[in-house]
């Protein structure tokens, strides 16, 4: 997970196309590897989330190649939003949630 986060950050911070392509390719490769993980809970939703992130990363790469790095920013931002959404599936319950249940 740390390597995946680092590859994502490197793609966001890239200032030239070569650096961006290296980082986004590594990110996509790590995502594909993550799909082989043994998800104990929410397997279908987790795989769906990974596929969505992979599609956004590929779209960002295509936009960066055809229209420049600035065009890739929108798909990269949506990746962060997807990360937040799908990470909630695997977070352990907090103290208050254990006492009172989910409040959503």
TrEMBL record:
Keywords, alphabetical: Signal
> Cross-referenced SUPFAM superfamilies, in alphabetical order?
Cytochromes
- State whether keyword Signal applies: yes
User: Which superkingdom is the protein from?
Assistant: Bacteria
Question: Keyword Signal on this protein?
Answer: yes
Family, per the entry?
Answer: Belongs to the cytochrome b562 family.
Q: What is this protein called?
A: Cytochrome b562
| Species annotation | Pseudoalteromonas shioyasakiensis
């Amino acid at each position: 997970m740390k390597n995946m986060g680092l590859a994502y950050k490197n793609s966001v911070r890239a200032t030239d196309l070569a650096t961006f392509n290296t980082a986004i390719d590594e990110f996509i490769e790590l995502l594909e590897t993550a799909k082989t993980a043994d998800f104990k809970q929410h397997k279908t939703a987790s795989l769906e989330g990974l596929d969505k992130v992979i599609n956004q990363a590929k779209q960002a790469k295509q936009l960066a190649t055809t229209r420049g790095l600035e065009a890739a920013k929108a798909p990269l931002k949506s990746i962060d939003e997807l990360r937040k959404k799908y990470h909630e599936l695997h977070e352990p319950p907090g103290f208050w949630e254990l006492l009172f249940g989910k409040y959503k």
